[in-house]
Design a protein that fits this description.
Blueprint (H helix, E strand, L loop, with lengths): L2 H10 L1 H7 L2 H16 L2 H18 L5 H10 L12 H11 L3 H5 L6 H12 L2 E3 H6 L19 E3 L11 H9 L6 H9 L9 H4 L4 H14 L1
Helix pairs in contact: 1-6, 3-4, 4-5, 8-11, 10-13
Length: 222
Amino acid sequence: MPSRKLARYLMQHLREIHDALDAETWARVAALLDRIAVEADQDAEADWYDLLDLIQFSLPRGHEIRRAISAETAGGTRGAPADTEISATLTVLRAMLPDLAEIAGDTDVDDDIKEVRERLRAAPSVSLEELRARGADPDAAHLLRLPGPGGVTVPAFQFGPDGAELPAVRTVNLLLAAGRDPWGAAHWWLRGNALLGDAPARLVADHPDDVIEAAQALREEY
């Protein structure tokens, strides 16, 4: 099957995959999916193939999902230089990616982190399609992008009234490594900050230098 159909198939059977894997392997699968959801396509492509390998060789021999992956990868398509399918594949996967904590029945996620995720998902956001329509690059490493049941969204506080990305947001997201740890960056943006007296997301448009200084102070702590 074409790789985009394989992505759809895997997302439709993700709970079955979870149930067939041990906890350690599922954690690795979830980490790859989290990265694919927010990475630039060139990085996400490698993780997509790593995901296929991990699922394929971790499922029992003869498992239907393992056979489906084997049929897709038997031709040696991994890393093909002219893979015109990959963008469509990643789009399908990101659009269908469910809440992984819900799939796993994870009740141990910190309540504060859950609250931050819910607040950010509920906050105004910009879709990847809207960004492309503006001529912006939705895969830019410095943008904070969050996966969710409806696909990847980009929190709107990162942009000014004219729709342009705020320069301070770019600086802070790079300091926070938002591309590698979007939820950690979201946690910082939305929580009250002792140095600022408010959540950085509320202040970045009017007090960009103060927000950058607070992010630099956080980095110096580590």
